[in-house]
Specification:
Layout: E1 3-5, E2 11-13, E3 23-27, H1 60-72, E4 77-81, H2 91-98, E5 106-111, H3 116-126, E6 130-134, H4 140-147, H5 154-165, E7 171-177, H6 186-196, E8 199-204, H7 222-232, E9 235-238, E10 248-252, E11 258-262, E12 275-278, E13 283-285, E14 294-295, H8 297-301, H9 306-318, H10 324-330, E15 332-333, E16 338-339, H11 353-356
Parallel strand pairs: 3-4, 3-12, 4-5, 5-6, 6-7, 7-8, 8-11
Antiparallel strand pairs: 1-2, 9-10, 10-11, 12-13, 13-14, 15-16
The structure holds S-adenosylmethionine and iron/sulfur cluster (2 copies).
């Protein structure tokens, strides 16, 4: 581990591959009002599925305390996620408390947008800086199929309009692309949000978790996505906004905005991965594809001091060597359509996406 005291008394820590810890993604609930087929398939997460019991879930004071500790170790950006974060009661109260943390200069949220029409104004007033809304397609039937619920995209689109009205700008749209499911609707999605000035980021379907039946042939690569959109709206590559940005950016040649592709399957970006994740039940997880994580809740509830918790987080990050997507890519034979290698692919034990929020 390298450590230094840069510009203030905040510490910067690096992992075994020299990557600093900059972002913390906080999963505020493992529950969701959708059942996206690629994340929480309805046939597994049915009415009787038992999500975390309330006492297991970190309360707002605990989340704030941990966020403060992470900020002390170099984190400057928080992202609130889930599950669906907007189903967590009083979420704006949590956001307001996080805005007071020294060193945090960005708080973002990822949501499916269903509850956004009534919550956008409160989130803005609480100090939320940026919002990302997931929209996989504008097609009514495909949206229902992918969300696993009898809802088309209308409510989510209303939520995006409301978010724009209360001043979120830019708004990012996350679109997971699955071959044979929504890949023929990408141009319509791009056109709709281009006209409204929002930035769509097309995401390659990932083998996160163990329940979504991932297969390599369902992955539409970033290259294909860019060719498809570019054939309709000419595109030019542009530089990243900052170190560790996950999306590769392109702008519309007509000057009407930009899109991104998140190519974690075909062009992994582990080398600049600066993201730590906090699960709803208080574990720190250092990779989207990790099997589990280190429990911080027991420390919190067992009376540990800030220093003891700081040391625990530092220990986890400084031992981190995660680079799953790079290993998976190296084990991928695109021609044969298979992933073959020790410890990678759909059969590996992994934490579920809704527990860590992407
Ligand atoms: N419920 C919120 C939402 O859907 O925006 C936040 C949590 S969700 C797990 C975060 C992001 O992960 C969403 O944009 C979702 O589309 C994406 N995601 C979930 N499963 C995925 C998968 N298998 N491959 C790629 N992206 C996935
Ligand atoms: Fe819920 Fe988001 Fe997962 Fe869809 S992707 S099931 S909205 S947590
Ligand atoms: Fe980061 Fe793990 Fe994704 Fe690589 S696979 S970019 S280490 S979360």
């Amino acid at each position: 581990m390298q450590a230094d005291h840069s510009n203030s008394d905040r510490l910067t820590i690096s992992d075994t591959l020299g990557r600093p810890m900059r972002d913390l993604r906080i999963s505020v609930t493992d529950r969701c009002n959708f059942r996206c087929t690629y994340c929480m398939p309805a046939e597994i997460y049915g009415e009787r599925y038992e999500f975390l019991p309330r006492p297991e879930i970190l309360n707002f004071e605990e989340i704030e305390r941990l966020a403060r500790i992470f900020a002390g170790l170099g984190v400057n950006k928080l992202r609130i996620t889930g599950g669906e974060p907007l189903v967590r009661a009083q979420l704006p109260t949590l956001i307001e408390s996080l805005t007071s943390i020294d060193g945090i200069d960005d708080i973002a949220l990822t949501t499916n947008g269903f509850l956004l029409p009534k919550m956008a104004a409160d989130l803005k007033a609480a100090g939320l800086k940026r919002i990302t809304v997931s929209v996989d397609t504008l097609d009514e039937e495909i949206a229902k199929q992918m969300s696993g619920r009898p809802y088309g995209p209308e409510r989510t689109l209303e939520g995006i309009e409301e978010a724009a009205r209360v001043g979120f700008d830019p708004i990012k749209i996350d679109t997971v692309v699955q071959r044979g499911v929504n890949d023929h609707t990408l141009v319509d999605t791009a056109r709709y949000f281009k006209e409204r000035g929002h930035i769509v980021r097309f995401i390659e379907f990932m083998d996160v978790g163990t329940k979504n039946g991932w297969k390599l042939d369902q992955v539409v690569t970033a290259k294909e996505i860019i060719e498809t959109i570019g054939a309709e709206f000419p595109l030019e590559p542009i530089d990243p906004n900052y170190y560790g940005e996950v999306a590769t950016r392109y702008r519309y040649a007509d000057g009407s905005g930009e899109i991104g592709v998140i190519a974690s399957v075909s062009m992994p970006f582990c080398g600049t991965c600066t993201r730590a994740r906090l699960t709803t039940d208080g574990r720190i997880v250092t990779c989207l594809f990790a099997a589990g994580g280190k429990d911080l809740k027991s420390l919190l509830r067992g009376g540990a001091s800030d220093k003891e918790i700081t040391d625990a987080v530092r220990g986890v990050w400084s031992n981190r060597g995660d680079r799953y997507s790079e290993l998976r890519e190296a084990a991928t034979d695109w021609e044969a359509g298979v992933v073959e290698g020790a410890g990678v692919g759909p059969d590996r034990k992994k934490i579920e996406m809704y527990q860590i929020g992407g």
